[in-house]
Design brief:
It contains 2 helices and 7 strands; from the N terminus they run E-E-E-E-H-E-E-H-E. It is α+β, with helices and mostly antiparallel strands and 127 residues long.
Length: 127
């Protein structure tokens, strides 16, 4: 379990990342995630509300879910960090490797549509 402190969330095809508004209201989003070295990595649009919330408050939870966000297990308390350009590039690679051709197409499509710097990687560690 040392390599996967997230339990089922570390191996699920989708995880629900829950970040918190200023008033403490939880906001969950189903996302792809890749486990590497005991940390979970996600990739998202740089100007999304979840990124803004994480920059203000890095406390998050992650739980296994389906594509629509229906939970399939217990949430794990964690801390999220928005990564720099090099870290975000690494996360794109992890997502492409984990999700195969689908991951490759989604990442490349996003880069063509939005540009490389319009998305960021987020590193999540268990607290």
């Amino acid at each position: 379990m040392v390599d996967n402190p997230f339990g089922p969330a570390g191996t699920s095809n989708y995880v629900q990342l829950t970040s918190f508004k200023k008033d403490g209201t939880p906001v969950g989003t189903p996302l792809w995630a890749a486990l590497d070295g005991g940390r979970l990595y996600i990739w998202t649009v740089a100007d999304s509300w979840k990124v803004k919330r994480i920059r203000r408050n890095p406390a998050v939870t992650v739980a296994p879910c389906d594509v629509r966000g229906k939970l399939k297990g217990e949430a794990v308390n964690a801390t999220a960090t928005v990564l720099d350009e090099a870290g975000s590039d690494r996360v794109r690679g992890l997502i492409k490797r984990r999700y195969g051709i689908q991951g490759l197409l989604v990442v490349l499509g996003s880069q063509l549509r939005r540009g490389k710097n319009a998305t960021v990687g987020i590193e999540i560690t268990v607290t």
